[in-house]
Amino acid sequence: MTWRKRIFDLFFASLLVIILGPIIIFLVLYIYLKQGRPLFYVAERMKTPTQPFGLIKFRTMTVVSDDQGVSGAHKASRVTPVGARLRSKRLDEFPQLWNILKGDLSFVGPRPPLKEYVDRFPGIYGEVLKSRPGVTGLATIRFHKHEERLLSRSTTAEETDDIYCRICVPRKAKLDLIYQRKQSTCYDFDLVFQTIGNLFKGSKE
């Protein structure tokens, strides 16, 4: 990560903590009153091919002892009513401001992958994770909705894994590498504003 990108992240993460602080406090109370503890979900993700970190989100699903792989239709029954509302506007990702301040994430970059997929596709993620993972990015903007539709067709963990590995991993990696080649502060601004615009579009549909 370049020093310009790090300054960009620190400045805007600090600004958003101040601006969104009251909303985050409200969400903490809302989640606690509506669905109880735990309030947060911490998932192991990879910052580099060898360096994991704890990705923080507001909890949107019921807790199980063994949760592996990406989320497909086979996990849909575990999404709580509160969680569905949070996910619809990506409010569950607000706690990732802490990950940005710590340096685990950037605002813009490839979404941080699970270790199991980094281990299974070392060639792909060896290249993708040369960029610091981000909260949003080119692949998130261009492919996230399509990925959701694809995974919504799966009814078992095995089917979800097959679709994700066969279609989603290579498609997202292609977009992540395009971002890597084009990355600049102006391009990061553009992708952040596109992400915000998509959220507002979703609210009108």
Give a written overview of the molecule.
27% of the residues are buried. It is globular, with a radius of gyration of 17 Å. It is built from eight helices and four strands, in the order αββααβααβααα. The model has no long low-confidence stretch (mean pLDDT 92). A hairpin with a 2-residue loop joins β1 (40-48) and β2 (51-58). It has helices at 3-35, 81-88, 96-102, 115-120, 122-128, 138-151, 157-182, 185-204; strands at residues 40-48, 51-58, 106-108, 134-136. The strands form two sheets. It has a two-stranded antiparallel sheet. Helices cover 59% and strands 11% of the residues. The protein is mainly α and 205 residues long.
Biggest sheet, spatial arrangement of strands: 1-2
Query: Helix proportion of residues, in percent?
Result: 55-70%
Compressed to H and E, one letter per element, the order equals HEEHHEHHEHHH
- Number of DSSP helices? 8
The beta-strand count equals 4
Largest sheet: 2 strands, antiparallel
Query: Which radius of gyration do the C-alpha atoms yield?
Result: 17 Å
**Strand fraction:** 5-15%
Measured between the Cα atoms of the first and last residue, the distance is 37 Å
Helix and strand content put the structural class at mainly alpha
The outline comes out as: globular
Low-confidence stretches: none
Q: Could you report the average pLDDT, rounded to the nearest whole number?
A: 92
Question: Which tags fit this structure?
Answer:
205 residues, mainly alpha, two-stranded antiparallel sheet, two-stranded parallel ribbon, 8 helices
